[in-house]
Design brief:
A: alpha/beta; 5-stranded parallel β-sheet; two-stranded antiparallel sheet; 7 strands; B: alpha/beta; Rossmann fold; 14 strands; binds thiamine diphosphate; binds magnesium ion
């Protein structure tokens, strides 16, 4: 009979089950399994991680603001998840390829997104926010979990090419219920493909607490499929970096897939269309504010004498600049002309669609003489 | 009569069905505390409790598959698919199980499952949130397919769908959720017109304009505009897409001899193709010109900023009307 | 990091990881976790289980013969899996409801199938082989894994009705790769529904060895979803009975779902249309013959002095009778008339289909005057 | 020229495509050692090894989803869905991903995926093994849909599908896998007619009979039988269902003025509806009678013993021919 498993009765406590290197108050904790993976990380690098998180939070806030001002149709805030996204994404090698969901603003930031890349999709200008090959990031995926299989297929290609690369899939706690995400684990394990699964357990799938999907640690599923996994404090950027390095090492060294559950929290609404007051229990947000990923690293660096007000001012200026550029890119976008709706449905000529395009062009032209 | 939005009418229909039959249970993502992302199930969790208003894990195949099991057990599940574009993961369970189990068991197992789908575009949404998948279900034998266009129909048809012993895919034009209309909340279902009946939304004599869902409103505006030019359009709201009420449709076509079918969904093998093929078969000798389609293009739903160039609108309908009437139009090039 | 897991390198050895009560040579083994569940099983009951298995094997052989003789379109033999099917199905209470796949001849036998019930579907007469409500068995499922979700939904209904019943899903090792089967575990765990999952790992999914689906014990997946599981020797009917009683007890007592992986072997082809010589490794079948579920129980009973040649002769006669009745039922089946194709597509009148039916009736009638 | 069965021609096409382009990889259930349940991939594992002929876990969404990832990586995956009825679990990946990624990324990501589907009925199979799901894919913008009817086309079209930068759903009539025909294995692809072109399988003057797949054979028999009665049928094998080669179709219809469209798939919103709606639109003034459909009924595929009452056959086609010619027929009641 299978071993006894302890359910997560209380999600407020569930971080205790996770690997971490920085306590919420910034104290550095020893972790025999993670320490080796970040032995080389010095104060300057930690400050860069802090900068990333602060800039990201600013970008995210700008996204919300642009939506409120009618410039974007929607925005999916990642506030609270900065450590998970920055910590894991900063561990990637340039050649690695990422398959994200819609909330991975921080991941595309870390991959070198241009200012317009954050908003192009949300503004409704294009299907993909950015050029996937430029960032080595697949388009934001909206169909929950679908991208996990794409990552596995890509990793299978890496394997066959004998390349020194890894594919990475990001997805949420809700996504773990989708058949596709489970099939992805099965295919990955079957092929021993170099893929890393990063589940951001932010405790909510829109209005559903993670307990609707699972009353047990999600990371506990992967080993059953033959995939080693780690549950990490997703608000601890150093732990996330370490865990991701472990996972990438594992995948890169030919040992097959690895799985990370980063336990974090969605501090904002699901999207700008959502109203979390309808479902979020009293006090929960407050409790998680005390585990804010940014203040945690800030506290650690200050205590270590490695963070000054000048540092912070400089970071803040960079954040403001990023937001400004993003806004400018957004407002400067020019919508494609009507007939662009027909562009690149197919890669090769298509008689049926060409006829429709011609008819529609004639239709549009019929208005031209009009006042 | 009570004035309600389409959304509220649907909520009232669900509530009424749950009161009428305790075997009715709701399943879906976020339908509990949140009341669904469109708030259609708002208040129902409080009134009926978590055994009848069931927040499910995030997996559409799982939702439909468990509904099949509930139907085996004698329940009458009503599913909310969160958005049109999220029904596809459940396609296998719908096509291979829901649609076929009654036939497979020769009626020994009934599948009185209602699958509600907030549906179609025009709301500036992100990808996969503006799909019009109705033709897939119309093509699937064993299903019934309903599309509503106003609060009164919505209230009645949803109750009829739930009461029906067959599976019903129920399309709700999300762009109309906030549109208001009069609803008789106490009208007995027994007196209601059958679920499959089409409705003449406006009578006319020159051209039959067939459509459904949110496009009914556009069609009525087109009829108004055409009237100004002295053209009389008969607008028919199909309401039931499978089966289509061809008796009503044919009666109109025999009168007008000219037909335009409009829908948002793309064209190839869409509902309009079906309707035109059937009309041609039944009313060929009455047709004075080729029936025309005004539909979304055969493209994936475009980004929000371009959707207005995809969706049929008043002008595109009027252009087709001109074409079936052999008046100057975009293709003749002249004077449009 | 998750615990080390040992892959099943060698499927010939993988039974060693499983619970069992009878060794292949018929020796009774003690098993602290299983013994209590079969403490009441006496020799007469064991003889009944032996009879069930022998009759089942005969029915199965008759199915193959009928197919070879052109009386059936197809047959999916269950030879080798008798202990799994009989052991688990004999543990059911009458009110329990089963959702089987196409290979569960033994399960429908144990539920009281009529002679024609085995063949009606394979002969192509009807979509369902039997009346589901009569046997409390859903129609044989052909879409791999789909029935597992049905079982969960049914179990949810049991839960809401407060009934003392359990729903049971049978499926194969190949099925465990399907999204649906994983979603079924997730939904079952989320609702704590009284459902038992029975995976018959018969080592093959058509031509694919189980290692394509999983290199680790399949039973190891369930605990990650919060579902206790047991891996049992599927060729040991007593262990299967015991394991199923454990699982049913668990589900019936309000503790939610349970999962059994019965490790067994498909001794025949996938179906009568299959040719296992194309893919089955040399010697594998022979190795499994030595673990035959029938000889094993036979050996145990003989050693205990509880099985005589008279017993066996009587059982053999019963088996022959069952086969004879099955054949007679098969040959006696009358195909429904042409217009029956339209029957019961819908439960309520459907104008579209009525018209098609009328047209087709007129079409058929138009031949009536002909020679 | 070599005489090959349709099945062997497909195998030869796969082999040739794999030799021509090392990025071509095959994925599917049982396609390795077994060579697929229909033996189409027989010998390919031995020749190309397990990295190019990949036995997958048993999950169709997984197969298509991983193929999408392989396409991202620059591969050209060719999928075998084991039977028509097992494509539905992959529907979401096909409709929401495969069909849309090229458009979504404005051509930055190509999806040159071929999805082979052993297809349709008439072989006395169990449930879910005789489905005709082509209309679902025809209705899905972003896909191309091919249906083959003979070894030569099969060999050529499969190679064209694999070489095409767009996703192609490729239907193989399993009932014809053992049918033989001449194939020119060395014909260069560059000289071949485009994949989308229809084929006049028999010329005629009285009625245009449009069909595809295994039904082409039935149509040719019908033409033979009609000829005995002095009726000349033009049989067109559509070959490409999306896009349909309407130029060829219209040319024929303008000549005959009468149309019958036949397919096994059920009728509502099927391919025949699409074809008739388009023909009516393009050739209305040439039509002398209403185009008719001869299709499977709108029922789930029936049990094997009844399938002959579901599948269109020679007599049902001839009856429709009589109807479009206004000759005595089953509906006039007289003298059939
Ligand atoms: C297949 C599918 N079903 C439903 C949805 C609607 N939906 C969008 S986000 C979401 C919740 C996702 O939760 P999770 O996976 O935890 O990710 P998070 O939003 O928390 O980042 C849902 C249900 C969808 N996008 N796709
Ligand atoms: C969705 C789906 N895909 C593919 C098939 C074809 N198929 C039928 S049986 C089978 C193998 C099943 O293996 P397993 O689950 O181990 O059950 P077993 O046949 O061994 O009892 C396959 C691939 C199917 N029936 N359904
Ligand atoms: Mg979440
Ligand atoms: Mg098996």
């Amino acid at each position: 009979m299978s071993p006894q498993i302890t359910p997560i009765a209380d999600t407020a406590q569930d971080l205790e089950l996770s690997e971490r290197l920085l306590a919420p108050d910034g104290t550095r904790l020893a972790d025999p399994r993670l320490d080796a993976y970040v032995a080389d990380v010095n104060a300057a690098q930690l400050r860069d991680l802090l900068r990333d998180m602060i800039v990201l939070r600013r970008i995210d806030a700008e996204g919300v603001a642009l939506q409120r001002q009618g410039q974007l149709g929607l925005w999916a805030p990642c506030q609270g998840q900065e450590a998970t996204q920055i910590g894991t994404a900063r561990a990637l090698a340039p050649a690695d390829y990422v398959f994200p969901s819609y909330r991975e603003t921080g991941v595309v930031y870390a991959r070198g997104a241009q200012p317009g890349d954050y908003v192009r999709m949300w503004r409704g200008e294009e299907g993909s926010a950015y050029d996937p090959s430029a960032l080595r990031v697949a388009p934001f995926q909206i169909i929950i979990g679908a991208q996990t299989l794409h990552a596995v297929g890509y990793a299978l290609g890496i394997l066959h090419d004998g390349a020194d690369e890894v594919a990475v899939a990001y997805f949420g706690d809700g996504a773990t219920s989708q058949g596709d995400v489970n099939e992805a684990m099965i295919f990955a394990a079957s092929y021993q493909a170099p893929v890393v699964f990063v589940c951001q357990n932010n405790h909510w799938a829109i209005s559903e607490p993670v307990s609707v999907q699972s009353q047990f640690p999600i990371a506990g599923r992967a080993p059953g499929f033959g995939i080693p996994s780690m549950r990490v404090d997703g608000n601890d950027v150093l732990a996330c970096l370490a865990a991701m390095r472990w996972a990438l090492d594992h995948a890169r060294s030919g040992k097959g897939p690895a799985y990370i559950e980063a336990v974090t929290y969605r501090m904002g609404p699901h999207t700008t269309a959502d109203d979390p007051t309808r479902y979020r229990p009293e006090g929960e947000l407050e409790a998680w504010r005390r585990r804010d990923p940014i203040t945690r690293l800030d506290a650690y660096l200050r205590a270590a004498g490695e963070l000054t007000d000048e540092h912070l001012a400089e970071i803040q200026a960079a954040a403001d600049l990023a937001a400004k550029e993003m806004r400018a890119a957004c407002l400067g976008m020019v919508t494609r002309p009507p007939l662009a709706v027909f562009d690149r449905v197919y890669a090769e000529p298509h008689t049926g669609l060409e006829r429709q395009r011609d008819e529609y062009a004639a239709y549009l032209a019929s208005f031209e003489g009009e006042a | 009569m009570t004035e309600l939005t389409l959304g509220k009418a649907l909520g009232a229909g669900l509530r009424r069905a749950m009161l009428d039959d305790e075997k009715v249970v709701l399943l879906g993502e976020d339908i509990g505390k949140l009341g669904g992302v469109f708030r259609i199930t708002d208040g129902l969790l409080d009134e009926f409790g978590p055994r009848r208003v069931i927040d499910t894990p995030l997996a559409e195949s799982g939702i439909v598959g468990t509904a099949v099991g509930l139907a085996f057990r004698g329940y009458r599940p009503v599913i909310e698919i969160q958005f049109d574009g999220f029904v596809y993961p459940a396609f296998d369970q719908i096509v291979s199980q829901v649609a076929k189990l009654h036939y497979r068991t020769q009626g020994r197992v009934k599948m009185p499952i209602t699958i509600r789908i907030p549906w179609a575009g025009g709301i500036g949404a992100a990808e996969h949130h503006s799909e019009s998948p109705e033709a897939y279900f119309v093509h699937t034998a064993g299903l019934r397919v309903i599309a509503v266009s106003n609060p009164e129909d919505a209230y009645r048809a949803l109750r009829q769908a739930i009461a029906c012993d067959d599976p019903v895919v129920f399309f709700e034009p999300k762009r109309l959720y906030h549109h208001k209309g009069e609803v008789d909340l106490d009208a007995p279902l027994a007196d209601a017109p059958p679920m499959g009946l089409a409705r003449v939304a406006r009578s006319g004599t020159d051209v039959t304009l067939l459509t459904y869902g949110a496009m009914v409103g556009t069609a009525l505006q087109a009829a108004e505009a055409a009237a100004d030019e002295g053209i009389s359009l008969e607008v028919i709201d199909l309401r039931s897409l499978s089966p289509v009420d061809y008796d009503s449709v044919a009666a109109s076509v025999r009168k007008t001899g000219r037909v335009v079918v409009a829908h948002e969904a793309s064209r190839e093998a869409g509902v309009a193709a079906e309707v035109i093929a059937s009309i041609t078969e039944r009313c060929f000798e009455y047709l004075e010109s080729a029936p025309l389609r005004v539909t979304g293009h055969d493209i994936p739903y475009p980004p929000a900023k371009l959707e207005k160039y995809h969706l049929p609108d008043l002008d595109r309908i009027l252009d087709a009307v001109d074409r079936v009437l052999d008046r100057p139009n975009s293709l003749t090039g002249a004077d449009a």
